[in-house]
Amino acid sequence: MDYTDFRARREATVWQRWNRVLLTLLFLAFWLVIVSLFVPPYKKLKIGQADIDKLQQQRDQQQASLSRQTREVNLLKTDPVYLETIARDRLDLMKDGETVFRIESAAAQADKRKDSARR
Asked: Bigger pLDDT: 117 or 33?
């Protein structure tokens, strides 16, 4: 075997290695370009989905509130006992022999204290 033949084979493998490295780098660069093109729209999509979820949650809360208020309006229109109870509660009245217990939150008590301090 000749030294020039060995040298030619060695140079060929070096160039083959460089070709592989170069192809690998080109492949990685191609994928980085593809990823960089799709990441911003994907982030926008995720933000949009989070906004949609938040709005749907608000809608559900509003629907629950509407159904409670609709139920209360129907009870006020149709149920005289309920109407009497609500009226006596809001006007701070009670029947003879009736004992009324009021349980108020700390925030409501603080509001009453502020109102009485202003007077």
From this structure: 33
CA 64, distance to chain mean position in Å, is 18
The answer to the question of residue 16 being in a domain is yes
User: What does the block give as tokens for 117?
Assistant: 């301090």
- Residue 87 contacts by C-beta under 8 Å, 6 or more apart in sequence? 93
User: C-alpha 28: how far from its chain's center?
Assistant: 36
**pTM for this predicted structure:** 0.51
Q: Is residue 49 part of a domain?
A: yes
Q: Is residue 86 part of a domain?
A: yes
- Contact (CB, 8 A) for 94 and 100: yes
Render pLDDT for 37-65 as a digit per residue (tens, 0 to 9). Answer: 888 888 999 999 999 999 999 999 999 99
The pLDDT confidence band at residue 106, using thresholds 50, 70 and 90, is: confident
Domain ranges, residue 105? 3-114
**Domain count of the fold of the chain:** 1
C-beta of residue 51 within 8 angstroms of C-beta of residue 45: no
Is residue 119 in a domain? Answer: no
Joined together, the tokens standing for residue 42 give: 């994907």
